[in-house]
Inverse folding.
């Protein structure tokens, strides 16, 4: 038997494996009916030690659309951990019931630790604090692949909270593995891309600015992000920075016709509602790709085929 | 200077920076072994001003990986029949297991009992290591 595979961070998959995953997702999108029973008789455990309705719905929809079933909790007080059970014991117990587990937890490294106690049940990291959220990255990649048909030779403008945005760090790392990808990092000074991310990029692979309008015409992909209240110690600082960028139709005038606008959602004010009707706005479609890529992921980790 | 007799078979850890001797003594758990162990501190040294030194008369193999982490300039002399038969220069280990603790307050290892955490060398100059769980950097 093959070694049980987990998805803890995006780097757990090679570029080739990612391609395979995205091809499978393409097939699912093209003929979803063929996949209705792939996971029949399989059980997914959805272990949400902190609530995240969006992510949970995405995983659960994915499993249900593959014909599988779901057990789980999304309230940390309902889990036996609140009674003092160790994570190891929780995972070992869940491993007796379920075929695959999705885990979300506020502490960094939890999914990795869980995977060590799960010799037979694949574990998927659905977010471990500010650390990793690999299925969001897969979602972003599938979206880019769908609209732009390739991963290389793009200018990607990333705008908003670049300091704390783990989704963005992860996307930048993932996209930097492809040929001739250039980044434009747009943020206020206080929320600049951290140096440990910049250090991993070639000097010519990125530029930094605080002015969205000045650079929007160069972008093939514009990735907007939310300034997260929970990352700030001071409420004042948050209030000052939260509406620093608001994308609206005026700012979009100079953007390329085939640029796509992405956002991991939920948004607050950083994209004006008037932009939703612009054909370049793909952020709601992104959620759909998120479900499809999770379907492909569940199949891959369970080694299922049609 | 106090004279400590030469050992016949064992290990001499030389050129330990002054004050580090006891730390190494503890990390190698030398208090747990039954053989003769000598810890010398504050010995005059031409090269270092003052240094610490440890002699262990034993034939049990010791895991010396941790030494590279604490002080890569230590010289390890392997003694047999009263003679030095080997001299080992230390390198920073690529990976250390169960020695370092993660300092990130948001790391799961602060909340769950995790044995033998792996740390991977991140920056040889700063001698920092990356936690296998949360990726944050830490030093001894
Ligand atoms: Zn850690």
């Amino acid at each position: 038997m093959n070694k049980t595979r987990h998805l803890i961070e995006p780097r757990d998959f090679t570029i080739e494996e990612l391609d395979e995953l995205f091809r499978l997702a393409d097939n699912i999108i093209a003929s979803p009916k063929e996949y209705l029973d792939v996971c029949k008789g399989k059980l997914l455990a959805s272990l949400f030690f902190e609530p995240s309705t969006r992510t949970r719905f995405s995983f659960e929809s994915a499993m249900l659309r593959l014909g599988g079933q779901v057990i789980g909790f999304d309230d940390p007080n309902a889990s036996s951990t609140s009674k003092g059970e160790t994570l190891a014991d929780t995972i070992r117990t869940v491993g007796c019931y379920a075929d695959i587990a999705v885990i979300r937890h506020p502490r960094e490294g939890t999914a990795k630790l869980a995977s060590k106690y799960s010799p037979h049940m694949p574990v998927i990291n659905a977010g471990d604090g500010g650390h990793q959220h690999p299925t969001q990255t897969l979602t972003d990649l599938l979206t880019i692949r769908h609209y732009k048909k390739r991963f290389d030779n793009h200018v990607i403008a990333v705008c908003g909270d670049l300091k704390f945005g783990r989704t963005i760090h992860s996307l930048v790392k993932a996209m930097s593995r492809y040929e001739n990808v250039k980044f434009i990092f747009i943020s206020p000074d206080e929320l600049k891309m951290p140096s440990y991310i910049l250090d991993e990029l070639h000097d010519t692979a990125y530029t930094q600015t605080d002015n969205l309008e000045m650079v929007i015409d160069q972008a093939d992909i514009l990735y907007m992000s939310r300034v997260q209240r929970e990352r700030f110690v001071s409420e004042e600082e948050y209030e000052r920075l939260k509406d620093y960028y608001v994308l609206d139709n005026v700012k979009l005038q100079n953007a390329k016709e085939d640029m796509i606008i992405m956002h991991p959602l939920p948004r607050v004010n950083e994209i004006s509602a008037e932009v939703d009707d612009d054909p370049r706005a793909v952020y709601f479609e992104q959620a759909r790709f998120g479900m499809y890529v999770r379907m492909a992921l569940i199949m891959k980790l369970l080694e299922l085929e049609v | 200077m106090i004279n400590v007799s030469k050992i016949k078979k064992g290990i001499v850890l030389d050129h330990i920076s002054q004050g580090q001797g006891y730390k190494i003594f503890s990390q190698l758990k030398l208090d747990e072994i039954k053989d003769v162990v000598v810890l010398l501190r504050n010995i005059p040294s031409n090269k270092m001003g003052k240094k610490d030194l440890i002699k262990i008369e034993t034939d049990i193999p010791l895991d010396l990986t941790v030494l590279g982490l604490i002080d890569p300039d230590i010289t390890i002399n392997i003694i047999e029949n009263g003679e030095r038969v080997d001299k080992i220069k230390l390198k920073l280990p690529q990976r250390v297991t169960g020695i370092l603790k993660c300092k990130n307050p948001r790391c799961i290892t602060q909340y769950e009992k995790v044995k033998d955490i792996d740390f991977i060398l991140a920056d040889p100059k700063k001698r920092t290591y990356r936690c296998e769980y949360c990726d944050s950097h830490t030093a001894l």
Remarks:
- The domain at 10-132+288-301 of chain A is CATH 3.40.50.1370 (Rossmann fold).
- Chain A has a mean pLDDT of 94.
- Chain A touches chain B at residues 86-88, 105-110, 112-113, 128-131 (CB under 8 Å).
- The longest helix of chain A spans residues 283-301.
